[in-house]
Write a structure and sequence with these properties.
By secondary structure, the protein is α/β, with parallel strands linked by helices. It has 3 domains: about 15-65, 434 Repressor (Amino-terminal Domain) (Orthogonal Bundle); about 70-170 and about 305-320, 3-Layer(aba) Sandwich (Rossmann fold); about 170-300, 3-Layer(aba) Sandwich (Rossmann fold), CATH 3.40.50. The chain has helices spanning about 15-20, 25-35, 40-55, 60-65, 80-95, 110-125, 140-145, 170-185, 200-215, 230-245, 255-270, 305-320, and strands at about 70-75, 100-105, 130, 150-155, 165, 190-195, 225, 250-255, 280, 300, 330-335. The protein has a 5-stranded parallel beta sheet, with helices on both faces. Helix 6 runs parallel beside helix 7. It is elongated and about 80 Å long.
Length: about 350
């Protein structure tokens, strides 16, 4: 019996993998926990030795021995937002039909937490991953690619992205919203949006607004831009602050429906008529948006379809197929009651 093989009757250990790959146990640990810190040739040698022995750290060992774990991971920012809950629900249903368990991580918009959660899922033997957004630390994707498992990025479909994507073009979606308000006659437009730092989707949305305004020789004035948490309260605070500036905007674009709900409630509390005095738009078309008075002009995104497409893509990969790149979903502008032509004073003859 080779000295590099575990003794009969004893399950393989990290030390056995290290001996077979001719590396230290510390290197074995790094391959599974921080693969980007290990040279590719050494990393492949360790992974091959581990696979041959059926070894993985912690609970994933038995899964690798069977060559299947029947676990897929989904990494999302939060479950507080029904948008991501819809994606998870659709994925859960699709995977359950195939006897696959969905392991969920909520990283709360913290990039360090996202890296930690992905590496923890990999250590538990997930066979595939769906990750919201692509603005993550490089080591997150390096960890996945080092394990050669399929993954897909959701809620983003940026032209030229190196990742398989299931989502929509965020820049184009908000270009459409801004152009709608411009076509109605608005020229001074405020923006209330989630933080752009570390969020590729929000950054693209703001870029889309700026691009649409630039096409008309306009721009977003600094005093008309508010970034902060995606909440009704922040929407309320922000619209009051924006309306206290000079010149006063005739329309406000909100990064999601929660912000728009806050903006609408505060505008009405200030005695304003929406949309006569102020037009407001949201994004996502959440359930409450159509129950407001007036109902919210917004963009509809089929979040359930995003989850279904992501699941179908990963399932095809797990079955050995090479699915073609998926076309982007196209959000639909829902014209309701909170956007209209501005009520401007008549110009002197």
């Amino acid at each position: 019996m080779s000295e590099r093989e575990p003794k009969p009757g004893r399950p393989p250990r990290a030390v056995d993998v290290a001996a077979a790959a001719e590396v230290s146990t510390a290197t074995v640990s790094r391959v599974f926990n921080n693969p980007e810190k290990v040279a590719p040739a050494i990393r492949e040698r360790v992974l091959a030795a581990a696979k041959a022995m059926g070894w993985m750290p912690h609970a994933a060992g038995s899964a690798l021995a069977r060559r299947r774990s029947s676990i897929v991971g989904a990494v999302i920012p939060t479950l507080d937002n029904e948008v991501f809950a819809a994606q998870v629900g659709a994925m859960q249903a699709a995977f359950a039909e195939r006897g696959i368990t969905l392991l969920l991580s909520c990283f709360n918009y913290n990039q360090d937490q996202a890296v930690h959660d992905v590496q923890a899922m990999l250590a538990r033997g997930v066979e595939a991953l769906a990750i919201v957004g692509e603005a993550h630390r490089p080591e997150l994707f390096a960890s996945i690619q080092a394990r050669h498992i399929p993954y897909v990025v959701t809620y983003s479909h940026r032209p030229g992205s190196p990742h398989a994507c299931v989502g929509f073009d965020n820049r184009q979606a908000f270009h459409t919203i801004a152009r709608h308000l411009l076509d109605l006659g608005h020229e001074t437009i405020g923006v209330i949006i989630q933080p752009t730092a570390g969020n590729d989707r929000v950054a693209a949305r703001l870029d889309g607004v700026r691009a649409a305004l630039a096409e008309r020789g306009l721009g977003v004035r600094p005093q008309h831009l508010r970034e902060g948490e995606w909440s009704i309260d922040f929407g309320r605070q922000s619209v009051r602050a924006i309306l206290a500036t000079d010149p006063v905007p005739t329309a406000v674009i909100c990064g999601n429906d929660y912000l728009a709900v806050g903006a609408l409630l505060e505008a009405r509390a200030m005695g304003l008529s929406v949309p006569r005095d102020l037009s407001i738009t949201g994004f996502d078309d959440i359930a409450i948006s159509r129950q407001l008075d007036p109902p919210l002009t917004t963009m509809h995104v089929d979040n359930h379809e995003i989850g279904r497409r992501a699941a179908d893509y990963l399932l095809a990969c797990l079955e050995g197929e090479r699915p073609a790149a998926m076309p982007p979903l196209v959000p639909t502008l829902i014209r309701r009651g909170t956007a209209a032509a501005p009520d401007l004073p008549a110009r002197p003859a």
